[in-house]
Write a structure and sequence with these properties.
alpha+beta; 10 helices; about 375 residues; Alpha-Beta Plaits; 2 domains; binds zinc ion; Aminopeptidase; 5-stranded antiparallel beta sheet
């Protein structure tokens, strides 16, 4: 039922439209034309203004041809760099870029699969319940598009993001919540040679504090890292300022809270002991997904994947995605592997066979949900 030629053409057309985060205007126009050309209602929200980008998130609501529960499929239209001037080429059933850019299968493979599934439903008059499609912007920049979306506009009871790297069949049922942690240390400047005793060295105070803090893996659910350290103004001046950026993640919210509190209080106390002063800013980036094989959104995906002859694999991942935001907004959501490989590199590729499987998975989920209803 999948039209291989059509899904390839649509995918290639989309990846060749540059859509680096916040510059999604052209792909937005393409998608508006694709959806409205099919007689579907598309709404663009205000996310473009909120994130200073060219486009908002697109929401397509497809009424059910039969009664049933609404389900959401989500993908993002933006890409990382280098994403200008992409030329896709196909060899031996694999689609790649020319090697000097990314390909953009992350996440246009998902959009192509979703559109193909919609076409197959309509051509074959396959009964389905209400469908909601959310195509976000600025996913690659801290999930900003999804974060500015108003989820009260949706009716869906479960959601599937198609934005994971594993082979079709993989279902991400666990991903961490994350805090960004920024430390600022204020010391006192002085000439390093003439009167160092009059200064308070912010770098040294930070170093002492950091040396007494955990870094790396905390336990099986929890990690933390220090990623950036900057400070001082000149070799011969006692550094009066230092700033550090780090993060903490955990699959369990209370563990994230605990490690964040430890990393905050230890730092402030230890810096103070050195006579300097510290400020710590915590930014909550995204919530955790912690689903079990017994949860409905997972069971439906498992059945859908099995029923098309693929092997479902329940997995855990170390990062956030739009699925985190959707799930956190109260619609149980898993992220599905779509077969995109080496993403965020110029070696990115995807197999045509996987593009087709992705569309089949979308169709199969729609079928399963209708059966359950
Ligand atoms: Zn992605």
């Amino acid at each position: 039922m999948i039209n291989q030629q059509r899904i390839i053409e649509n995918f290639v057309a989309m990846v060749e439209i540059a859509s680096v985060s916040s510059k999604e205007g052209k792909i937005r126009d393409y998608l508006l034309a694709e959806f409205s050309g099919r007689g579907l209602q598309v709404e663009e929200d205000q996310a473009g203004d909120l994130v200073n980008g060219e486009s908002g998130n697109l929401l397509v609501k497809i009424p059910g041809v039969v009664d049933g529960e609404a389900i959401l499929f989500a993908a993002h239209m933006d890409t990382v760099e280098p994403g200008e001037g992409i030329k896709a080429s196909m060899e031996d059933g694999i689609i790649r870029s020319k090697g000097d850019t990314i390909l953009g299968s992350d996440d246009k493979a998902a959009i192509a699969a979703i559109i193909e599934a919609v076409d197959v439903l309509r051509e074959n008059k396959i009964p389905h319940g209400p469908l909601e499609l959310l195509i976000t912007v600025c996913e690659e920049q801290g999930l900003k598009g999804a974060k500015s979306f108003d989820f009260s506009r949706l009716n869906s009871v479960i959601a599937y993001a198609l934005d994971a790297g594993g082979e079709p069949g993989s279902i991400i049922i666990q991903s961490p919540c994350q805090n960004e942690i920024e430390y600022k240390v204020y010391g006192k400047p002085a000439h390093a040679g003439m009167n160092p005793e009059k200064g308070i060295n912010a770098i040294q105070a930070a170093a002492v504090a950091l040396s007494s803090m955990p870094c790396g893996r905390i336990d099986q659910d929890t990690t933390c890292n220090l990623g950036i350290i900057e400070g001082g103004t000149a070799r011969n001046i006692v550094a009066d300022y230092c700033h550090i950026k780090g993060e903490a993640r955990s699959l369990i919210r209370s563990k994230l809270d605990d490690i964040t509190e430890l990393l905050t209080n230890t730092f402030i106390d230890e810096v103070q002991k050195q006579g300097a002063r510290a400020e710590v800013d915590i930014k909550f980036l995204y919530p955790e997904i912690k689903l079990s094989p017994e949860d409905r959104v997972v069971k439906t995906a498992v059945r859908a994947i099995e029923s098309i002859g693929l092997i479902p694999r329940l997995e855990s991942t170390g990062g956030g995605s739009d699925a985190s935001i959707i799930h956190g907004a109260g619609i149980p959501c898993v992220n599905l592997g779509i077969g995109m490989s080496n993403v965020h590199t110029c070696d990115e590729y995807i197999r045509v066979a996987d593009l087709i499987k992705d569309a089949q998975i979308v169709l199969s989920i729609i079928r399963e949900v209708l059966k359950e209803g």
